[in-house]
C-alpha cells in the first residue's frame, strides 16, 4: 500500500460520511469500515483491514488533520454565524400539540468552522417558555422512537417454504370431496387460503397514505448552554439592526422571511450558544425546547430555507390523533404508542429532504382526514 493510498481511501470514507449524513466513522482491526447513521452502526464495505492497514489509516487521518482544517458539523428557525450562509444538513424535532398549546423540541447540525459562535433564531406565534433538556435524555428518546416506528419486515422465504405445503393440503382436501362438489369447494378453500395469506403478510388495520428602540425584549434568561432573548419587532429592519448590534450575522435573503413573521405578530427567540458548550463542536447542537399557546401545530421552516441548502428533516408529532403535513414530507409511521419515554399518545412520523424552494412557508400540521394507523412494510429474502 503506497503512502497516497491510505489518504485516498480515508477521503473516500469521509465523503461517504458526508453523503450519508453519518455522525461517526469506525476503523478497527479485523472489521470492515462502518458509519454511525442515526444511532446505528452500518458497515459500508466487505473489506476487513489488518493491523498494518489500520495503522496506515490512523497516520493518514493525522496527516489530513495537519494539512487541512476540516469544517465541523454544528447546528432551525435559522442559525446565524460569522459566515453566510451556514449549511443545515439535518434537523430533527418533536412537536407535541394538545389543541391549544404546542411544545417544539428542536435540534440541528450546522456545517461550520471551528471556533465560530452561533445564534439560533426561531420564530414562534406567541411568547414561549424556554428550556434546554439534557442531550443524552433527548438522544435516548429519539432512539426509543426510532426503534418503535421501524417498518414491518416480512421474510418472503417463509412464505415460499409454506406455499408448497399449503397447496398440497388444499389438493388432498379437494380429493376427499365428492366429484360434483370439487370445483365449488376448491374455489371456496382457495379463497380462504388467499385471504389467510393476505392476513399474514399485510399490516393489520393500516392504510397507506400519503431594545433597540423599535425592538422589545419580552424576556431574557439563561437556558442551559444558551443566552436566550425573546424579541418582538415592528419591522425586519428594526430586527436586523438589533441582530447586528448583538453580534448576529444576516443577509438580505432573510428580510422577506422576517417581514412575513412580523406582519403576523410572531415573536423571535434569539439564543446564543456558548462557544465551549458540550456539543457545540462536531455533533448535534444542544436541544432547544419552546412551549407556547397555539391554535394549530406549526414547524417553522421559512428562515431555514433562506440558508440556500437542502435539509433533511426528521419530525415526530405527538397529538390526539394522526396529523397531516400537507404532503411535503413523506409519512413513515402513525399509530398510538406508549413507553418509557412517552405517555400514551398518537405518534405521526415524517422524514424527508426539503430544498430551499420547498421551505418558503412553514410546515402547518393539521388533523388528518382519517385516523388509521400506518406502518410501511419491507420485504426481505
The secondary-structure element order is HEEEHEEEEEEHEHHEEHHEEEHEEEEEE
Fraction of residues in β-strands: 25-35%
The N- and C-terminal alpha carbons lie at a distance of 38 Å
Helix/strand class: alpha+beta
Number of domains: 3
Computed CA radius of gyration, to the nearest angstrom: 26 Å
Q: Could you name the ranges where pLDDT drops below 50 across 5 or more consecutive residues?
A: 67-76, 80-87, 204-212
Shape: flat
Tell me the number of helical segments per DSSP (H or I, 4 or more residues long).
8
Largest β sheet strand count, sense and barrel closure? 8 strands, mixed
Mean pLDDT: 76
The helix fraction, in percent, is 25-40%
Walkthrough of the structure:
- The chain is an alpha+beta fold and 381 residues long.
- It folds into three domains: 4-70, Beta-Lactamase, CATH 3.30.450.90; 73-149 and 209-380, Sandwich (Baculovirus p35); 152-201.
- Helix content is 30%, strand content 34%.
- It contains eight helices and 21 strands.
- The protein has helices spanning 4-20, 51-67, 135-148, 156-176, 182-201, 236-245, 253-263, 302-305; strands at 24-26, 34-37, 40-43, 72-74, 78-80, 87-97, 101-112, 119-124, 129-131, 152-155, 215-223, 226-233, 267-273, 288-293, 297-299, 311-319, 323-324, 331-339, 342-354, 363-367, 377-380.
- Strands 4, 6, 7, 9, 14, 16, 18 and 19 form an eight-stranded mixed β-sheet that branches. It has a five-stranded antiparallel β-sheet with strand order 5-8-13-12-11.
- Helix 6 (236-245) crosses helix 7.
- The longest helix is centred in the middle third of the chain and has 21 residues, at 156-176.
- The two termini are 38 Å apart.
